[in-house]
């Protein structure tokens, strides 16, 4: 049952509790285990991957079996429907089109006295994409991670994903990978797969950036290897916050809340509405739509623990609560969503109006569905082409230009006690060393 | 003494050793200590800050003394020379001008059937800037962190820095902070100050992003709180790699190597040159310039452990070695640096030609001096305005636009076993619920 709260103080506390549901997890025991796994992968390489696959996936593999073969890649197309292949291809096309817009471009500016300043953008050399197994083995995850890497121009793109009980990788995942331009795929998952990407093994290359969601072990491993490699973010359970006014349709709102709750028993589904009647109607509709839900138990659990409908006095109050929560997904099911937008400060993605369910963005509108969770939208953004690129600052000074600022640099360097910083400028200004070459 | 290596295999091993000098540090004991400190700050707030300041800085403070007062801020201007104030103001101006270029801008695109897609950029609400004490208490650090936060439009900007033995904060640091628009400054440093910024205390506000360098305890604390707040990067000891040809001046090269080495006994200073004679001359010049160096012991130590001159066969070979190292700072002291640039893949900042010592970028050319270290330039970039901003994806679909992709979304959602994702679209397409409002 979706609870309804009408007191703002209670709502604030409740949203804080939901927001903190992962921050307050005790993970120290798991951290010890993950640290051990990473160390073992670093020292033992492939053998460690085989051992952990045996232990955690109950599957005996040889080194040669780690990589998904060309014939498995080909066969995947036979194992999914034509309709699904087309839907994956359509999604890829639309995701790529969006990600190609406003990608970072190198630039230089010419200043006085022949100075040049700029930024030079380049792709990382190698990217590793983690795709979860089991309940969360989704072709859409593959597209949302692989397409930006391809658009960025990453020359080596590698995927790891845990094998099923039969040793196979989900066919739809394999099709999505190929549609997005990834053919180097290893059937290995868990914290040990993150170790393989971070340190490299005999079979799996060390990469520069690791992206993709995973369970708590994968997330802890990503946090530990951050600094050795780059990572996209630390993904927590998914969340939606819907702001709805008198104009909203309770059937749609209920479906959107459930579409979040069905991901995970820890998923959060929050409604803020100015209409008490709407809250009640949504509560009813949630029950109706849960009736024959194939993931009913899991979804009910999420709604019970991390679902809530809050009746607010105004859309301004709703925006304030939303900004405190900083949701991953924000739906504005209100009469004028563009006006409401001015009140919003933090959200991973914002879905405008009544005909934009989160699902359209999850799959194919174009923007990335890998978004900051657990309040991280206060400071973080969607995964994007930038995740797979970096820039170098460019600086060129002429002798004259350096002369102009030489005193200021020496003053600053001396104030900081950095003698050679000062000397590196002073010596260049001294005629004595001007032509001092070998 | 700066070692000279002429064998490429030895050079590769040596550069790898230098690159890994921080990755292989055993930090587990320190991690336990830092975790304990963070937990104590989270539960005890201000009192923990006072206790740790007493313990680590041997200084007894009261809660009221944590914040630097208005009169201290005013007095700072009396305690530094006019020349230094002017140099700080000049640096601020030039750093700001560079950072104002190409800042992220919000955008939307209108598509078929009244769809709208875009990205909406906003600043974080609160930023916390860490400024180290002691040897590394630099006004330039303040400018390089504070100016981008100000340009981004962060409304609350807070600085923390450990107090000296007399309880005071470095006057030049206080001047730089004010020039860059920061007036909320707390005299507290170390891992506990990071905890204060991440969780908030009675006196210090919880922030959204923490930036700035620090010792190993500060860096470990930043890594641990990452996910609760955003961070800029995990800074390691500084490094320069200089590529020099027959055109280079050994006096300049030696000064630039020493300008890196003088930062820290773990700083790295690497020369790659096509000219064996230049390597020998630089080796001599390093000794000459070390003679009356005020930080001679520390600087010699860095040169001995993490300094090296490598004689390479060609600039192409130099570029390959440089790309493997992915240096924080790269100086191209060669005849045609812009041609050489095409061979470079990874570097935090690139200094072009003979009149661009790293010091010009460290202080006032404009680009940020907070750069990726320890090989992180393979995937990371300079601190910038982006560090203090984030974006929300914007998606708006019309009923017609949703209708167009409705089947594809349902196909994908069903393939992923996400019933309500599918339903959230199907129900919107069904006339039955069209006008179903409260």
UniProtKB/TrEMBL annotation, chains A, B:
Residues given in the record as Zn(2+) binding sites: 260, 263, 362, 421
Recorded GO MF terms: histidinol dehydrogenase activity; NAD binding; zinc ion binding
Keywords in alphabetical order: Amino-acid biosynthesis, Histidine biosynthesis, Metal-binding, NAD, Oxidoreductase, Zinc
GO biological process: L-histidine biosynthetic process
Cofactor note as given: Binds 1 zinc ion per subunit.
Span of the signal peptide: none
Binding, substrate: 238, 260, 263, 329, 362, 416, 421
Keyword NAD: yes
Keyword DNA repair on entry: no
Pathway: Amino-acid biosynthesis; L-histidine biosynthesis; L-histidine from 5-phospho-alpha-D-ribose 1-diphosphate: step 9/9
Highest taxon of the lineage: Bacteria
Catalytic reaction list: L-histidinol + 2 NAD(+) + H2O = L-histidine + 2 NADH + 3 H(+)
Active site residues of this protein: 328 (proton acceptor), 329 (proton acceptor)
EC number: 1.1.1.23
GO CC term, one of those recorded: cytosol
Pfam families with a match to the protein in the record: Histidinol_dh
Cofactor(s) recorded in Swiss-Prot or TrEMBL: Zn(2+)
PANTHER family reported for this sequence: HISTIDINE BIOSYNTHESIS TRIFUNCTIONAL PROTEIN, HISTIDINOL DEHYDROGENASE HDH
Role according to the record: Catalyzes the sequential NAD-dependent oxidations of L-histidinol to L-histidinaldehyde and then to L-histidine.
Protein family: Belongs to the histidinol dehydrogenase family.
Protein name: Histidinol dehydrogenase
Organism in which the protein naturally occurs: Dactylococcopsis salina (strain PCC 8305)
């Amino acid at each position: 049952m979706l609870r309804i709260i009408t007191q703002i103080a209670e709502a604030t506390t409740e949203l804080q509790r939901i927001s903190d549901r992962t921050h307050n997890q005790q993970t120290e025991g798991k951290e010890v285990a993950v640290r051990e796994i990473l160390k073992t992968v670093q020292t033992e390489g492939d053998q460690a991957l085989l051992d952990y696959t045996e232990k955690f996936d109950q599957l005996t593999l040889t080194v040669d079996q780690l990589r998904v073969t060309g014939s498995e890649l080909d066969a995947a197309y036979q194992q999914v429907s034509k309709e699904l292949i087309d839907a994956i291809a359509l999604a890829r096309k639309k995701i790529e089109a969006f990600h190609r817009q406003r990608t970072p471009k190198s630039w230089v500016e010419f200043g006085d006295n022949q100075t040049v300043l700029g930024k030079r953008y380049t792709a990382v050399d190698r990217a590793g994409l983690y795709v979860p197994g089991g309940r969360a083995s989704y072709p859409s995850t593959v597209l949302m991670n692989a397409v930006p890497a391809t658009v960025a121009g990453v020359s080596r793109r590698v995927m790891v994903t845990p094998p099923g009980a039969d040793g196979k990788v989900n066919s739809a995942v394999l099709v999505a990978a190929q549609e997005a331009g990834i053919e180097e795929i290893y059937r290995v998952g868990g914290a040990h797969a993150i170790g393989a990407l971070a340190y490299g093994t005999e079979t799996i290359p060390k990469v520069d950036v690791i992206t993709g969601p995973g369970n708590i072990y994968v997330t802890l491993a990503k946090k530990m290897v951050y600094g050795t490699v780059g990572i996209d973010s630390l993904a927590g359970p998914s969340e939606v916050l819907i702001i709805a006014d008198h104009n909203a349709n309770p059937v749609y709102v209920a479906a959107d809340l459930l579409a979040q709750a069905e991901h995970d028993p820890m998923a959060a589904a929050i409604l803020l509405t100015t209409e008490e009647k709407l809250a009640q109607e949504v509560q009813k509709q949630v029950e109706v739509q849960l009736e024959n839900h194939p993931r009913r138990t899991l979804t009910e659990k999420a709604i019970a623990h991390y679902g809530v409908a809050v009746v607010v006095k105004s859309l301004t109050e709703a925006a304030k609560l939303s900004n405190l929560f900083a949701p991953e997904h924000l739906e504005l099911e209100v009469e004028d969503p563009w006006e409401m937008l001015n009140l919003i400060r933090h959200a991973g993605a914002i879905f405008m109006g009544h005909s934009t369910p989160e699902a359209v963005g999850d799959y194919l509108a174009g923007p990335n569905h890998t978004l900051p969770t657990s309040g991280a939208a206060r400071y973080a953004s969607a995964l994007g082409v930038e995740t797979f690129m970096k820039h170098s600052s460019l600086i060129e000074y002429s002798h004259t230009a350096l002369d102009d600022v030489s005193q200021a640099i020496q003053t600053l360097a001396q104030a900081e006690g950095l003698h050679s910083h000062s000397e590196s400028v002073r010596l260049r200004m001294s005629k004595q060393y001007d032509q001092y070459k070998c």
